[in-house]
Specification:
With 274 residues, this protein is α/β, with parallel strands linked by helices. It is built from eleven helices and seven strands. A seven-stranded mixed beta sheet has the order 3-2-1-4-5-7-6, with helices on both faces. α6 links the parallel β1 and β2. α4 packs antiparallel against α9 and α5 packs parallel to α6. The structure holds S-adenosylmethionine. S-adenosylmethionine binds next to α3 and α6. S-adenosylmethionine (SAM) binds next to α3 and α6.
Length: 274
């Protein structure tokens, strides 16, 4: 999401001292606040709106993302920007003897997450993924669903994820992307920028928020660009899988393995999506 798009499209005014001072940190904090406030506002209807906008496919792709984490049953996993906890619950099923820490900075999204039947092995945390409250090399794997577009500093976020992952562990990112085929891209953009805000606005009871949300794709990198960001920010090995002709993409980044490590390879899975 570009600064300009926040200024032009954001539902709340960015008029604080941060903007006036123009400091990069202050600007990012202000942008983060806009994003958090927006998700606080739409939290109550977020799940229903998602189902309406995707016909339920959003959940299918969360399962596909979690399937890319090749970890032991007792692994400790991290769900970044967990929102209402849909991906965390899928991840929890993959580690029946392990644990999923799920973090988000919207207290209202977390409130909704806690109303869902909670698997015994999910812990929710309120916090910013740009300053993760975890020690380095804590997790055997991590994932993020439908959120990277909303992160104000993608490079900083990736470095934080790499910091808390164990050497050789993988981070799976599921996100809307930019289809390479021009015809399909035009059709998809028509749906994404024109139809989706109407459907989301009706189902989510906040048309202004759903007019704003698609704008986060405008300055988001395409799949190659995001892969380059992974590589530049802590992930030695990166691959991605396009979904639905590139309307979505799963990026899988793996941190460098420890020298002389005999550990199990948790990095690259074989079960690619078509
Ligand atoms: C589109 S929702 C996705 C929620 C969930 N992952 C899913 O699969 O439905 C994006 C979430 O990212 C969260 N978010 C955005 N930036 C964040 C940040 N810097 N730190 C923590 N959470 C953030 C928002 O609060 C929101 O809950």
């Amino acid at each position: 999401m570009g600064v300009e798009s926040v200024r032009a499209q954001g539902p709340g005014p960015l008029t604080g001292a941060a903007l006036k001072s123009g400091s990069a940190d202050g600007l990012q904090t202000a942008k983060g606040n806009v994003v958090r406030d927006l998700f606080d506002r739409i939290a109550a209807h977020y799940d229903r709106a998602n189902t309406a906008m995707t016909g339920g496919l959003d959940e299918l792709w969360r399962v596909a993302a979690a399937n890319q984490l090749h970890v032991a049953d007792d692994a400790r996993l991290l769900d970044l920007c967990c929102g209402t906890g849909a991906l965390a619950r899928v991840m929890a099923r993959r580690v029946p003897e392990g644990m999923v820490d799920a973090i988000d900075f919207s207290s209202k999204m977390l409130d909704v997450a806690r109303t869902h039947a909670k698997p015994h092995n999910v812990n929710y945390h309120e916090g910013d993924v740009l300053t993760l409250p975890f020690e380095r090399a804590t997790f055997d794997g991590a994932a993020m669903g439908y959120s990277m577009r909303n992160i104000v500093d993608i490079g900083a976020c990736l470095r934080e994820v790499a910091r808390v992952l164990k050497p050789g562990a993988s981070f799976v990112n599921l996100e809307i992307s930019k289809p390479p085929n021009p015809t399909w891209r035009r059709l998809f953009y028509f749906y994404f920028y024109t139809v989706l805000p109407v459907v989301g606005g009706l189902a989510g009871s906040d048309p202004a928020a759903y007019r704003y949300l698609p704008q986060s794709l405008v300055s988001f990198p395409d799949a190659d660009g995001l892969a380059s960001l992974f590589q530049a920010n802590g992930f030695a090995h990166v691959r991605y899988v396009r979904i639905m002709g590139g309307a979505l993409a799963l990026h899988i980044g793996t941190t460098e393995r420890a020298p002389n490590s005999n550990g199990r390879d948790t990095s690259l899975g074989a079960d690619l999506l078509a």
